Every structure is written in C-alpha cells, then in structure tokens.
Amino acid sequence: MTRAKCIFCPVTRRAAASNQAQRLADFCRGNDTTALVVEGEALPLLRRIPAATVDCVMTSPPYWGHRAYAAGGLGQERAPKEYVDALVAHAIEIARVLKPTGSFWLNLGDSYRDKCLAGIPWRTALRLVDEVGFVLRNEVVWHKVKGGPDTARDKLRNVHEQLFHFVRQRRGYFYDADAVRSRPRTARVEQGAIVSATGVRGVRYRRQLELSTALSPSEKSRALAALASILEDVRAGRLADFRMIIRSQQRTTHSDSALVSGRARELARDGFYFLRYHPGGSKPGDVWDILPEDSQHRAAHFAPFPADLCRIPILATAPPGGLVLDPFCGTGTTLAVAATLGRRALGLELAPTYAGLARERIAAAIAHPPKR
C-alpha cells in the first residue's frame, strides 16, 4: 500500500499539472471572452503560463506579516528580505508572461517589525528595477479615505499604500491616456468672444503683450498672432483651455534655467509660451483618494482591495479584449472589473474558498455590469 502511494501519487500530480498547463495555455492563446480562475500556488502556475501572452497584470499580494490567510502562502516569511525575495521570484515569471507592450501594476502595503517601518514597497520596487529589469513609470499613492482606526499612541495613523506601474520596455508599451481622462468643461462664446472652460478670454494676455517692455516689437507681433491662433483652437474644440506665459509677466513653470527647462528656453527665445489643456480632459494624478473595499466578502477574505483601484490601470494599459492577469486574485476584484470593462481575465488563487467567491463575483459582474 505504501509502495503504491509512493508510485502513483507523483504520476497523478504530473498528469494534473500537465492538464493545468494545457488549460492555461489554451485560455491564454485563445479568444475565449470568459474569465478563468485556476486554483493553486501562484509561482508554479505562473511558470505554466505561455510566455508573452498577458497584456496587463494587476495584483495585490498578501502583505508581509499582516495576517495568516486560510491557505497560508506568501506573506508569512520570517523576515522582510525573504518576503521581498519571494516577490522578486514571482516578478521574474510575470515579466516572462507579459507581452513586450504589457504593464505590471503592483499594490503593496507596508509592515512594521520591532516598531520600525520595514519599507517593503520601495525595497521591492527597486529590486524589480535593478534585478528583474522592469521600468518603473509611476508610483501611485492610494489615500485610503476613511481608513481604519489606529490604536498606537506613539505614531501617526497609516492611511496610504503604494501602487507601482512597471513596464517591460521604455517606449512602445500600450497606454491609452484618453481612456482615463476626466471629462472637461467646454468653452463657450459670449458676445462674439471665445471664453475657455475656466473663463480665459485672452483680453488680459493681449493687454499684457501690448504694454510689455520685455518683448521686442517683432516678438509682440508673433505673440499676438499666436494668441489669436490658440483662441481659435479653443473655439474649434481642439483645446479645452490654455494658459499663456509671457516674459516678465508670469512665472516660468518648472524652472527658470534654460539649461534644464525647455519652457525656459522657449521663453528666452520667443518671449512667450502656452500651456495647452487637452480637449479630452486632464489625466489622473498620482494620488488617488479611494475608499477601502467594504463588501459582502469581508467576512471571508480579510483584504479585498477596491474596484476603483483597478479601473484606471486596466483602462489605460489593457487594450479592449486584452488579457488581464491577477496571480493573487483573492475574491476576484481585478477579474470582475476587467470583465465588466471588456477585457479577458485570468486569476490564480491558492485558497479554494476564495477562488469560488471570485467565480461568483465575476459571474455577477458580467450579469449586472455597473452603469457608467
């Protein structure tokens, strides 16, 4: 009996692993529009995903030392370095499965050890750049509005986490900035004069140019012509708004040094420049005010991160119909958001209970998509 157990269990595992690998390969290379949740440890499953098949990875791994989840796994290492080592090992596989045009979004919270903040998010980010070869494009600060209470009497309350945006190549990765712009106010015409979204009419700029002693006559003439042209762009809807920087009138943006600032060089050369506001609205900044998730799954899963944290990354860096992967999918927040946004979704999850909840959430999200 013992011998049979030793002989046949490995064969069964190999067969199961082969079937699992084939299932993952078929899903990643196919055009199936449904989501797939696969149970098992993230690292072995990542190794079974075909290379360069994923468009976007959006994930929030279990944080180090915060809680013991039902199925154990990542986050229970003895020291921060061991935890970061494990994250780096996962990131190597994530880099492999990502397409060259793909993006990797990593949400990490920090932890304390012996009353000292461990600095895990930035320790991880730097190693992913230095050792794995990722390019770090943004650090987003998630301000957890109405975050939980903190009973400590010798430190401030922690109400933020980091969300890092990595890419495999410095240029040419997929990024749809227009998909995440805020809706701008529109320009209007009053008494025959164009008025920008924020009330700019050009009258003050025209007067400043006419009275300027810092611009030569030829510079004034070119500046007035450029002002008339940009007002016409606003009228035609090619711009939502603008600001004009005139030599000796407004402060130079960024830097006054022509050695480090193209704006400063433009001001020195022409006597003016414009700040143009995109007609599609402004891009999001890198500080996001988002309420932490508070759903019906709170009792079953300790740390479901919010759907609002996933929307901008998926809209901006996963093409419509593209494949979004969450290797620590938990109760399926990333996958549900991806599915409702018209992306394909693949989740890996160690705990069968959480995987089941993820499947339920995805099905509910597809059946009842949020109104936008």
Can you lay out the helices and strands and say which pair or pack?
Blueprint: H1 2-29, E1 36-39, H2 42-47, E2 54-59, H3 80-97, E3 98-108, E4 112-113, E5 116-117, H4 120-132, E6 135-144, E7 160-167, E8 188-190, E9 193-195, H5 203-211, H6 217-235, E10 241-246, H7 262-270, E11 272-277, E12 287-290, H8 308-317, E13 323-326, H9 333-340, E14 344-349, H10 352-367
Parallel strand pairs: 1-14, 2-3, 2-13, 6-12, 13-14
Antiparallel strand pairs: 3-7, 4-5, 6-7, 8-9, 10-11
Helix pairs in contact: 3-4, 5-6, 9-10
Overview of this protein structure:
There is one protein chain. This protein has 372 residues and is an alpha/beta fold. It is built from ten helices and 14 strands. The longest helix has 28 residues, at 2-29. The chain folds into two domains: 33-180 and 283-367, Vaccinia Virus protein VP39 (Rossmann fold), CATH 3.40.50.150; 188-277, no CATH class. The chain has helices spanning 2-29, 42-47, 80-97, 120-132, 203-211, 217-235, 262-270, 308-317, 333-340, 352-367; strands spanning 36-39, 54-59, 98-108, 112-113, 116-117, 135-144, 160-167, 188-190, 193-195, 241-246, 272-277, 287-290, 323-326, 344-349.
